[in-house]
Amino acid sequence: MDITENPLIRVLLVDDHKMMRDGTRLLLSQNPNIVIVGEAGNGLEGLELAEKLLPDLIIFDITMPGLNGVEMLKRLKIKNKKPRLLVLTAHEDATYLRTMLKMGVSGFVAKSASGRELLEAVGEVMQGYLALPSDTMEDFAFNDKALEGKLEKLSDREVQVLGQLLTNQRNSQIAEALSISPKTLETHIRNIYNKLGVESRSSLLINAEKWKLIISQL
What CA–CA distance (Å, rounded) separates 92 from 169? Predict the structure, then answer.
């Protein structure tokens, strides 16, 4: 979408990698209708700047230290002017897309995308369209449905245990946090592995961020 005739677009960048922010700023500066009004290195800084600067668009990463992109969105409260949200991320699978869309995100751009692709995504989002990477569309609904279906097999307590497992805590710490015995915890863990189709904690942690995103929407 062409944004050369649009009003000035005020953008807030939120990414923990300064080099990525610098590169994004340089790419966006190719369009005179875009101005970077602020930059943040984590979700907490991004939250504060968003509520202070009231940008038209927030371009942010999901995985950041401290307050990540998901938690930032949960806490983002702007009454009179809600910004458009564009995720710039290395995660391109359908689960991330579906989950973030439920939270109000309007588009996604891979960190490996070209400057042209980024500018096109900004234009689409600002004109009210959904910007999705074309190479993810084919698996979009299928992958998300399959993963959410697996999670639906878990009981409420098993979801709680899974959330603790994804933090990579020791079993003793998880049992204490949930006020259950180690033996009961082991039973829950076995059930979780069976229902999710994984064989070990390590195989579960491979997709830790993916499961966290799904759980955050329950």
Answer: 27
93-137 pLDDT, tens digit each: 666 676 777 778 888 888 888 888 999 999 988 988 778 776 554
The span from the CA of 161 to the CA of 156, in Å, is 9
3-state helix, strand, coil in the chain (%, to 5): 55, 15, 35
Distance CA 8, CA 31 (A): 10
DSSP state of 83: P
Residue 35, strand partner residues: 10
Give Cβ neighbours of residue 35 (< 8 Å, ≥ 6 apart).
Answer: 8, 9, 10, 11
The helix (run of H) or strand (run of E) holding residue 41 is: none
What pLDDT was estimated at residue 214? 72
Low-confidence ranges of the chain (pLDDT < 70): 1-6, 79-80, 91-96, 98, 134-148, 203, 206-207, 209-210, 213, 216-218
